[in-house]
Write a structure and sequence with these properties.
Radius of gyration: 17 Å
Helix content: 25-40%
Distance between the termini: 30 Å
Shape: globular
Number of helices: 6
Structural class: alpha/beta
CATH superfamily: Glycerol-3-phosphate (1)-acyltransferase
CATH topology: Glycerol-3-phosphate (1)-acyltransferase
Number of strands: 7
CATH architecture: 3-Layer(aba) Sandwich
Order of helices and strands: HEEHEHEHEHEEH
Amino acid sequence: MPEAKMPRVPKHERSLAFVIVAAILAPIIRLMFRIKTSGIENLPKSGAYILVANHMSYLDPLAFAYSVYIHMKRTPHYLAKEALFRIPVIGKLLPKVGQIPVYRSGRSNQEPLAAAKEFLKAGQIMVVFPEGTLTRDPSLWPMRGKGGAIRLAIEMDLPIVPAGHWGVGDVLGAYTKKFRPNPFHKVEVKIGKPMSFAHLKKDGVSNEEMALATNQVMVEVARIVGELRGEEPPKTLWDPAKSGQTETGNFRKEK
């Protein structure tokens, strides 16, 4: 299987290709739901950062792309699963608009991480869903995350900006095909205060330190989601491994 093409960092954050695609997609997304973004004052005024959020619907990347581009006035770049880059037309387009393929099944992701670093070095932002897949929590709370985004932030001395969202699941729920677009349905995105892990910037961050930092980020994301839901999040993040669930794929089909 040929390697997916890595994107090149454009001279300007809002590349012509992205502007054209955004002009086409934004009205379509707006027909699916109405997005409200709060907490914009918490964002760094300029430069690179890593925006992390909960993941509960296949529409999350589109909802966040709209929020980031239209409301936050930045261009979103995702670390997206490589399978998307094998879809005709879409697979050719994704690298042209600055999206980065990542591999599963044990394949090396050194090249994708190097590409992400180049975008961040250029002062652009990355959007990451640290859970790595749609949440498996029965109540759709954020589950335990993976440390890739946090490790990247530590290595590059960049802030992690936690965010939460709620409402997308009413349009397309987790692991379902019931698509119910509604231009009047409100999807809320809320941005938290930046988190710094500069104290961990040293050679050889331990696995325990990474696990603790990752948990701190996901607990904060869960807290923000709780504010949007008007509920208290669970005291312990859901762990698929402890519940006998697979790490990727539609686990509901496997039952």
